[in-house]
Amino acid sequence: MPGSLRLSRGVVADPPVDPRVPAESHEKLEAWLRYFEELGLEEFYTRRKPNKTKTKPAAAAHRVTQPVQAPAPSLASPPHKAASAAAVRAAPPVALPLAPSPSLFERVERAENETLEVIQNHLGEDCTRCRLHKGRTRIVFGAGNRRAELVFVGEGPGHDEDLQGLPFVGRAGKLLTQMIEAMGLTREQVYICNIVKCRPPQNRPPEKDEIAQCSPFLYRQLDAISPKAIVTLGNIASQTLLGTNKPISQFRGQWFDFRNSKLLATYHPAYLLRNPPAKGEVWKDLQKVMALLGLEPKKRSR
User: Fold this and answer.
1) pLDDT at residue 6 greater than cutoff 90
2) Tens digit of each residue's pLDDT (9 = 90 or more) over 169-222
3) Which of 2, 139, 251, 301 is most buried, judging by how many CB atoms fall within 10 Å of its CB?
4) 40-60 burial string, b = 16+ CB within 10 Å, else e?
5) CA distance linking residue 290 with residue 302, whole number of Å
6) Per-residue confidence (pLDDT) for residue 110, from 0 to 100
């Protein structure tokens, strides 16, 4: 059930809404819960970190609270005791504190022996999980070496990608191919995919709810490939995987730990087509990736 947490078999309660948590996090959480329901998971179990302080049992922490009911006063009860019991009955329900535990995203673990074929079959050929399916021609799942040491993650398919069902095959894709070859690799040696797998209308940036629906499949892809390095291309891809709203200019070219890989953000090839002087900055970023992977730049033929 979208927007609800399954506490135990047959019992469903609406998740508490914490005003301190951004709406985007709620959307991602809701997408993950729908994903787990599609897998047929009926209950959630979490491994809680040891806590030296005494806390209420986990079962009590998840119990739906009800107003405290005091026993009805007997005929022999003094008047002040009866009034006290009535006050207890009128008291609002007391929320039981939840035992500390890691977030849902920290609990998500790599699926044992999951392959890209399994993930693609689960995604399906007629996905309707978000509104992007209404205008798409083909789903663009990803392409390349399924055991690649290097993965490029873009924003979403464009016109040419939508027609062919392959990532980065338009003008920006041709420039990305040149970048890959300059690193001494070929497209067949790397893996290329996007944050969303359907083309947004008029190539607009994907919206948060669309990303929330599609990103679980991307995370599973990255886990299945388990690359040494991930290069995110542009603001959307970089902000999504790093969970930040900062512009890419503030963290481009820096290494981050992402699951079991190293992640580096750089400018999107489409941006380089509009701003050719930025190619030098991107080449510096790619050289850092080459150093990590032990690659030598491609020698130019004379």
Assistant:
1) no
2) 999 999 999 999 999 999 999 999 999 999 999 999 999 999 999 999 999 999
3) 139
4) eeeeeeeeeeeeeeeeeeeee
5) 23
6) 58
Position 41 scores a pLDDT of 58
The chain-wide mean pLDDT, for the chain, equals: 79
Q: Look at residues 233, 273, 262, 269 and name the one whose alpha carbon lies nearest to residue 153.
A: 233
Q: DSSP strand E in 184-288: where?
A: 191-194, 229-233, 255-258, 261-266
The residues pairing with 151 across neighbouring beta strands, listed in sequence order, are 191, 230
Tokens 């074929």 map to which residue?
117
The answer, as to whether pTM is greater than 0.70, is no
Q: How many CA atoms lie within 13 A of 171 on its CB side?
A: 5
**108 has pLDDT over 50:** no
Cα–Cα distance, 195 to 217 (Å, whole number): 9
Which own/partner pairs from 253-256 qualify as long-range (CB within 8 Å, at least 24 positions apart)?
253/281, 253/284, 253/285, 253/288, 255/288
Q: Say how many CA atoms lie within 13 Å of 150 toward its Cβ.
A: 25
> At residue 2, what is the residue type?
P
Q: Are 179 and 284 in contact (CB under 8 A)?
A: no
170 within 8 A of 161, measured Cβ to Cβ: yes
Structural domains in the chain? 5-48+96-107 (no CATH), 116-293 (3.40.470.10)
